[in-house]
Write a structure and sequence with these properties.
This protein is of the alpha/beta class and 365 residues long. The protein contains nine helices and 20 strands. It has a ten-stranded mixed β-sheet with strand order 1-2-6-3-7-9-10-11-14-15, sandwiched between helices.
Length: 365
């Protein structure tokens, strides 16, 4: 197998070809944004970004893949805690502008905000017909017990996987982590000390990797005859998450809901969508809804769904026009709201689209 490296500057990115077999099984693009996976220890024992030109030294198992791999690295690598909608747009632009040149995409991303980024990309890339697999690591690639190698290798294998007819096995935005493949907009980070950092409580795993990779094909997005990539990249950041808790301060709630230019609020309620029935709270929420602020009711629970109106403590939310978020995660709810508000539409259109699935992020009523 022939491996070669070429490099050129592309504004703020470096493009490196890492492999060039004669007849590759798949041609994949790796997008390196930063994060723990791409870190190694220097001679002083400090963590520094990994040079992908040395990828074969770090992961010699890549030689066993018959893949053509290209890496586009952000020139300014980011800690995922610093990710913004501009980060999502940068990733989306790379995928969109290279869409016809590759069979699949693997995004290397820090774990802290990976669920937000994967959710955002699922809305930006509607009609997707190719895999976009996010992955990362809890330990750097230079650590002895790192999970980075296995996560990267299996993410590449999944991105390259094809059905008997040559179509991709997983044509959607996903997160692969610790032997499990999850729908990106159904995942959330739940662990900071263990390798199984992500879970998808309200939607089945798309695949599990053991000796073989077992795909749960009945829950993976199916390609449709009229599928064609529709790329959108505008976000409106005038949104908030308001998490309820016993004894929440009236002044804080009223201040948040009265913020200038506020367009939407993800309201994290108790249980199946319940909220305090104190007069001041009800009046503050009703005033916000009347002012045209979109309020989406999302449960704080990791599993289950909002059943707005089932109990008296949520019936009043239904009556005043708070929207039912069903079983959507807070990460998907927030990015979906930002995405929809970035489009020019009417208030009624915003409201109806918020409570309907766009990219499999929630269960249809």
């Amino acid at each position: 197998m022939l491996w070669r490296f070429t490099e050129r500057m592309d504004r703020d990115k470096v493009i490196i070809d890492t492999a060039a077999p004669q007849n590759p099984d798949a041609n994949l693009l790796i997008i390196y944004t930063g994060g723990t996976l791409g870190m190694v220890y220097d001679k002083n024992g400090s963590l520094v970004p990994f040079d992908f030109q040395q990828i074969l030294d770090r992961i010699p198992s890549l030689k066993r893949f018959n893949l053509l791999l290209t890496v586009i690295s952000f020139r300014e690598l980011i800690d995922s805690a610093s990710a913004t909608p501009e980060t999502w747009v940068e990733i989306g632009d790379i995928i969109f502008h290279n869409y016809n040149n590759y069979d699949g995409f693997v995004v290397l991303h820090g774990t802290d905000t990976m669920a937000y980024s994967a959710s955002a990309l699922s809305f930006m890339l509607r009609g997707l017909t190719k895999p976009v697999i996010f992955t990362g690591a809890q330990l750097p690639i230079g650590a002895v017990r790192t999970d980075a190698r296995e996560n990267l290798l299996t993410a590449l294998e999944i991105a390259a996987a094809k059905k008997e007819d040559g179509s991709p096995v997983v044509p959607e935005v996903c997160i692969y982590f610790s032997n499990r493949l999850l729908r990106g907009n159904r995942a959330r980070k739940v662990q900071s000390l263990h390798f199984d950092a992500f879970e998808s409580t309200n939607y089945p795993l798309l695949a599990e990797a053991g000796i073989e990779i077992h795909y749960n094909r009945h829950v993976i997005r199916s390609l449709k005859d009229n599928d064609k990539l529709r790329y959108s990249r505008k976000f409106n950041g005038q949104v908030m998450i308001l998490k309820l808790f016993p004894g929440i301060c009236r002044n804080a709630v009223e201040t948040i809901l009265a913020l200038p230019r506020l367009r939407g609020v993800v309201l994290e309620t108790f249980g199946s969508g319940n909220a305090p029935a104190s007069k001041w709270f009800m009046e503050a929420v009703e005033k916000a809804v009347a002012a045209g602020i979109l309020i989406l009711n999302v449960s704080q629970c990791h599993g289950g769904r909002v059943l707005q109106g089932r109990y008296k403590s949520s019936h009043w939310l239904q009556e005043i026009g708070v929207l039912n978020g069903a079983d959507i995660t807070s990460e998907a709810a927030l990015t979906k709201m930002m995405f929809l508000l970035g489009e020019e539409s009417s208030d009624n259109e915003y409201r109806s689209r918020l409570i309907e699935p766009l990219s499999g992020e929630m269960t249809k009523k």
